[in-house]
């Protein structure tokens, strides 16, 4: 009998295949203390396992480089960096010298590292917890003399059903055999999801009830809608077979739009940028015809290690992105951490509400060495392309003055050392609080550009914790109060001659696009593969009609009322394009 459940749409596409359940071998952990005479033996066991995993990750790196490219291969380069991280090696050795077994030391250390990442409030950084678990799994398998390759022989036309897949397991998948995969854990920002998207393998994650999925049963996976259907009836099968044909036609339409501008029916254009969370996401710019990067999150460099990244490490990461995009713009968000996103090597104070506490630009004066190191790395990278830097959580002009003074000071030092940089590096502010939105005109005196961080702006305007499941449905960027603040900021930026974009999730929200377009944004920066759909919509819109709609939306009584206003326009635009 047909059953259906809804999960997280992790990798787009529709798959029809036969279920194959994947249950990995559970490694043994020696929890009892070892004898002093065994310490050296366990140290050697760890070193041998480390060498074996190194060879395995090297093979994965080179095979991924050939199949999906350098950006995905960087996932395994980062695993190799962690494997040989000095702090990691030292802490494992210290645990073993404290008479912990090699298996316990590896499990304990990487469990704690993964837990720190999973506790963060950033979806991308939360997903990095899986990288620590992946490395842990590989090391434990090596310590237990178990094979490290487990999915390379998955049967043809299968849909893999599992609790979870690590990046190294996902990289082994053969798209000619594996139609898709359904997981209990994971999300869109996980490396397994990123790899699946790049391999063209549909994936649904966050499925809580997989016990009904039996081997060799026919199933349908809709990675675009997050649906997993077990034992579908004939009517459902036919529906999804037709949907596969429609999807292929849509993909052709998107491909035809790739190099066309985002310009409305009446000739008004807007730039479409991409958000990236690390160098591994660069393919998103190439694949969808993006005009630049509107948000390059720098936190991945700081959160994935046990020590502060050096100036050289940061410089090479920023330079890689800037050179890849040149001459297109890259907007690097300066380090955005705090009580909700703590660094493992820095003691943050305990705060009752870290979202309203010591975070973003507020930490820069006290963590001055860390801040100046990032500024120097960014300035050096600016010599290789069109780099801008953006300051998070700005509320006051004095904060921007401090950042600009620091940039000027560090540029002067670099130039005195004969190191190339752009001393006129553009510096902008994120508009993430109602206070910043209301004083955008005043901030323009110390800002070269602005970007609306709609996720936090919505949260702070509505006083709703977007991570609280009990009230998450009330978190809505289409609330008229949020729209009014955004429109006010855009108007102020335009009057003062500053460019303004939006880099939150709203930028790719189809219902919001006509309103954002009407407000007069210079650019929308969009997460993931959402850019083609936004471009297609804008090319169908009429700017004058959108302006009329915006005037009504700003005076609407609720987010639902705004949706009712927008819906007919979306339907009309679609019909006119047919």
From TrEMBL:
Domain PEP-utilising enzyme C-terminal: 253-542
Pfam families: PEP-utilisers_N, PEP-utilizers, PEP-utilizers_C
Binding site for phosphoenolpyruvate: 297, 333, 455-456, 466
Occurrences of domain PEP-utilising enzyme mobile (ranges): 155-226
Gene name in the database record: ptsI
Similarity comment: family membership: Belongs to the PEP-utilizing enzyme family.
Function summary: General (non sugar-specific) component of the phosphoenolpyruvate-dependent sugar phosphotransferase system (sugar PTS). This major carbohydrate active-transport system catalyzes the phosphorylation of incoming sugar substrates concomitantly with their translocation across the cell membrane. Enzyme I transfers the phosphoryl group from phosphoenolpyruvate (PEP) to the phosphoryl carrier protein (HPr).
Top class in the EC scheme: transferase
Domain of life: Bacteria
Biological processes per GO annotation: phosphoenolpyruvate-dependent sugar phosphotransferase system
Cofactor dependence: Mg(2+)
PANTHER family found in the cross-reference section: PHOSPHOENOLPYRUVATE-PROTEIN PHOSPHOTRANSFERASE
Catalytic activity: L-histidyl-[protein] + phosphoenolpyruvate = N(pros)-phospho-L-histidyl-[protein] + pyruvate
Name the UniProt record assigns to this protein: Phosphoenolpyruvate-protein phosphotransferase
Documented EC number(s): 2.7.3.9
Domain Phosphotransferase system enzyme I N-terminal: 6-128
Residues binding Mg(2+), per UniProt: 432, 456
Keywords per UniProt: Cytoplasm, Kinase, Magnesium, Metal-binding, Phosphotransferase system, Pyruvate, Sugar transport, Transferase, Transport
Keyword set includes Secreted: no
GO cellular component: cytoplasm
Active site: 191 (tele-phosphohistidine intermediate), 503 (proton donor)
GO molecular function: kinase activity; metal ion binding; phosphoenolpyruvate-protein phosphotransferase activity
């Amino acid at each position: 009998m047909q059953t259906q459940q809804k999960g997280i749409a992790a990798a787009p596409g529709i798959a029809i295949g036969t279920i194959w359940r994947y249950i990995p071998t559970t490694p043994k952990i020696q929890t009892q203390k070892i004898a002093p005479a065994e310490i050296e033996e366990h140290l050697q066991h760890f070193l041998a396992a480390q060498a074996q995993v190194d060879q395995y990750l090297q093979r994965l790196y080179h095979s991924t480089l050939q199949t999906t490219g350098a950006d995905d291969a960087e996932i395994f380069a980062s695993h190799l960096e962690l494997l040989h991280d000095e702090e990691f090696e030292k802490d494992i050795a210290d645990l073993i010298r404290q008479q912990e077994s090699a298996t316990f030391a590896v499990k304990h250390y990487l469990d704690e590292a993964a837990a720190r990442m999973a506790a963060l409030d950033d979806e991308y950084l939360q997903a990095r917890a899986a990288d620590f678990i992946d490395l842990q799994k590989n090391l434990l398998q090596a310590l237990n003399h178990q094979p490290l390759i487990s999915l390379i022989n998955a049967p043809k036309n299968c849909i893999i059903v599992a609790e979870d897949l690590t990046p190294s397991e996902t990289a082994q998948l053969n798209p000619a055999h594996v139609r898709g995969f359904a997981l209990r854990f994971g999300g869109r920002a996980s490396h397994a999801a990123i790899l699946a998207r790049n391999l063209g393998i549909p994936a649904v994650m966050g499925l809580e009830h997989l016990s009904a999925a039996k081997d060799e049963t026919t199933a349908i996976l809709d990675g675009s809608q997050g649906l997993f259907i077990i034992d579908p009836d004939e009517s459902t099968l036919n529906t999804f077979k037709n949907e596969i044909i429609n999807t292929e036609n849509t993909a052709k339409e998107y491909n035809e739009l790739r190099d066309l501008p985002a310009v409305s029916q009446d000739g008004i254009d807007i730039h479409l940028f991409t958000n990236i969370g690390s160098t591994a996401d660069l393919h998103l710019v190439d694949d969808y015809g993006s005009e630049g990067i509107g948000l390059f999150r720098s936190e991945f460099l700081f959160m994935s290690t046990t020590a502060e990244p050096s100036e050289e490490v940061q410089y090479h990461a920023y330079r890689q992105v800037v050179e890849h995009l040149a001459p297109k713009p890259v907007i690097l968000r300066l380090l955005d951490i705090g009580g909700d996103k703590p660094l493992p090597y820095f003691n943050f104070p305990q705060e009752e509400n870290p979202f309203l506490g010591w975070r973003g630009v507020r930490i820069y004066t006290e963590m001055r060495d860390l801040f100046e190191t990032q500024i120097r790395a960014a300035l050096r990278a600016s010599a290789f392309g069109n780099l801008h830097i953006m300051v998070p959580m700005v509320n006051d002009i004095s904060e921007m003055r401090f950042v600009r003074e620091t940039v000027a000071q560090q540029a002067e030092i670099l130039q005195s050392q004969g190191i190339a940089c752009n001393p006129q590096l553009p510096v902008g502010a994120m508009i993430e609080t109602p206070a910043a939105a209301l004083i955008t005109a005043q901030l323009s005196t110390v800002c070269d550009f602005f970007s609306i961080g709609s996720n936090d702006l919505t949260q702070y305007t509505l006083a709703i914790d977007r991570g609280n499941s009990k009230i998450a449905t009330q978190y809505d960027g289409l609330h008229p109060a949020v729209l009014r603040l955004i429109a006010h900021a855009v108007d102020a930026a335009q009057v003062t001659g500053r460019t303004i974009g939006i880099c939150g999730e709203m930028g790719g929200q189809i219902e919001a696009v006509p309103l954002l377009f009407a407000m007069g944004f210079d650019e929308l920066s969009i997460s993931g593969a959402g850019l083609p759909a936004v471009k297609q919509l804008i090319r169908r819109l009429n700017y004058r009609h959108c302006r009329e709609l915006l005037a009504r939306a700003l005076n609407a009584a609720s987010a639902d009322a705004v949706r009712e206003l927008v819906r007919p326009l979306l339907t009309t635009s679609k019909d006119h394009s047919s």
